[in-house]
Amino acid sequence: MIQSIDRDACVGCGRCVERCPLDTLRLDADGKAYIAYPEDCMTCYICELGCPVNAVCVHPLKAVPPEVLPGILEGKGR
């Protein structure tokens, strides 16, 4: 499950919001990402892997992130 988003590190690019397959994340009025629906997270790591500044933490005890569908991180899968 998604653990946190570092608001100080977040640059508001929206990549995590765009790529989340379950619309768990949103951008607030300041343009920063936040976890809107944590219970909907399916722990796919797409948001974490796609964050250019490593502001998203899905789970602190993860081993190796699972392989994602081809094209997702490049924005082609959604």
Describe the protein's architecture and organization.
The protein has helices at 15-19, 46-50, and strands at 4-5, 25-27, 33-35, 56-57. The protein has 78 residues and is of the alpha+beta class. The strands form two sheets. It has a two-stranded antiparallel sheet with strand order 1-4. A hairpin with a 5-residue loop joins strand 2 and strand 3. The longest helix is centred in the N-terminal third of the chain and has 5 residues, at 15-19. The chain is globular, with a radius of gyration of 11 Å. It starts with a strand and ends in a 21-residue tail after the last strand. The mean pLDDT is 86.
Give a quick set of tags describing it.
two-stranded antiparallel ribbon; 13% strand; 2 helices; 78 residues; alpha+beta; 4 strands
Structure, briefly:
By secondary structure, the chain is an alpha+beta fold. It has helices at residues 15-19, 46-50, and strands spanning 4-5, 25-27, 33-35, 56-57. The strands form 2 sheets. A two-stranded antiparallel sheet has the order 1-4. The chain has a two-stranded antiparallel ribbon with strand order 2-3.
Layout of helices and strands:
Elements: E1 4-5, H1 15-19, E2 25-27, E3 33-35, H2 46-50, E4 56-57
Structural class: alpha+beta
What is the N-to-C order of secondary-structure elements (H for helix, E for strand)?
EHEEHE
Largest sheet: 2 strands, antiparallel
Helix content: 10-25%
What is Rg?
11 Å
Uncertain parts: none
What percent strand? 5-15%
Give the strand line-up of the largest sheet.
1-4
Number of helices, counting only DSSP H or I runs of 4 residues or more: 2
Oligomeric state of this protein: single chain
Give the terminus-to-terminus CA distance.
21 Å
How many runs of DSSP E, i.e. beta strands?
Answer: 4
Based on Cα principal axes, name the global outline.
globular
Quote the average pLDDT: 86
